[in-house]
Amino acid sequence: MNYLIITTDPVSTEQAVLDYAKTYNPSDVFWVKKSADKKEITVDVINNMIDQFNLTSIAGKKLFIVFQAELMNTNAQNKLLKTIEEAIDTTVLFICQNLERILPTVRSRCITYYHNTTENQTLKQMAESNPDATAISTAARQFFAATKIETAMSCLPIFTKPENLTLALHALSQELANAKLPAEKKFSLHQALAKISRNATANCNLTNAFDLLLLAMF
Asked: Does 204 score more than 60 pLDDT?
């Protein structure tokens, strides 16, 4: 069985998966990750995974865990299709933060599961290690309270630092939910935040991406 696990908290999800893996014989558990010197999960990694598929399991069932599955390039995903469709007595867990980067042909062969957590450990760790965390939250509040575009623009520099993006989008989403704004404007702003997230994934210029938020706000 193949599962596509969507998460916004990979730290908590990884721990849950590690706990689940303990129900298997350790020799039947395989971890699939990108090579340290690569930015993507490439075909050579998937070829090695397929080789492991073809081995006889020790305890009668095997588990494959693909971390950051959205990093599989197109060739790697296509290479997997036949294998995951025909696998017997094997479970594959694709751990993913960006569903849009998973090919429809892979999605159709998986049961999609959204892993929700009561406390986002990933964001918590990021906030604890980021000296801008408090300033990001303050700027997010100020942005949605701004009545002048100049005031709102003064909040953007801290959001557009690449290392701050995830915390910034989270803080902005939280503050937008509490902001006293008309429902129609809130909807436009939520759409703008979603587009910023997609643009950032596509490596677009962050400053230009946040111009969308200014346009929606004013």
From this structure: no
